[in-house]
Design goal:
Layout: H1 43-49, E1 50-51, E2 60-66, E3 77-83, E4 91-99, H2 104-121, E5 128-137, E6 147-155, E7 160-167, E8 177-183, H3 185-195
Antiparallel strand pairs: 1-2, 2-3, 3-4, 4-8, 5-6, 6-7, 7-8
Length: about 200
């Protein structure tokens, strides 16, 4: 399969693309869902990247990669989920995060360009539904003034891609940010069950 690069270019320009036949064709920092983390990092590094999750079901493990030598610096961090019992560390979910301190409008502008390119490269053979203008309040902010603005691609096979900009109120002292996420159906379903 052709490998495609889904990256946030700091200069706000995007690469030209060919058609994607599968969600596994997309990459963040040169990594795709379905890849093995061992192709990029050794087990000692993975132990350092591993993070605790708040979920009771520990079927999946989360890794957070920040400022690694193999990290191209297009994102501030890369978040990856693998099955906890999988010794091959197969990637089920992959996310890239970029901060935009007090600049939610810039996040929306960059995301608009990324979404335009995603729309161009999705193959006509892939069946999906695109949901835009999805806003939800961030529960962490009791004032109700912080929110996510999501664009979601739900694929017929259950896989999902989303591009989210988070607008934190000044009271929260967090940085506005973009979160691009590519997830296979199995991890998406697991994640939803944890939030019920």
């Amino acid at each position: 399969m052709k490998r495609l690069l889904l990256i946030l270019i700091l200069t706000l320009s995007m690469q030209s693309w060919t058609k994607a036949d599968d969600i596994k064709d997309f990459q963040i920092e040169g990594i795709s869902v379905g890849d093995s983390l061992l192709d990029f990092f050794n087990e000692n590094e993975l132990k350092k990247f591993k993070r605790k999750t708040k979920f009771k079901d520990k079927s999946f493990s989360r890794y957070l990669i920040i400022n690694h030598k193999n990290h191209s610096k297009k994102f501030d961090a890369v978040r990856i989920y693998t099955k906890t019992s999988d010794k091959n560390y197969t990637i089920y979910s992959l996310g890239g995060m970029k901060q935009y301190p007090n600049n939610f409008k810039k996040c929306l502008k960059v995301r608009k360009e990324i979404i335009a390119d995603i729309n161009k490269i999705l193959s006509n053979d892939i069946i999906y539904k695109k949901k835009e203008n999805n806003k939800r309040i961030r529960k962490q902010d009791k004032s109700g003034k912080s929110f996510d603005d999501l664009i979601v691609y739900d694929f017929n096979n259950g896989d999902q891609m989303l591009a989210m900009c988070i607008d934190w109120s000044k009271k929260m002292k967090y940085s506005d940010m973009m979160d691009l996420d590519i997830s296979l159906s199995e991890i998406k379903d697991w994640n939803l069950k944890q939030k019920l």
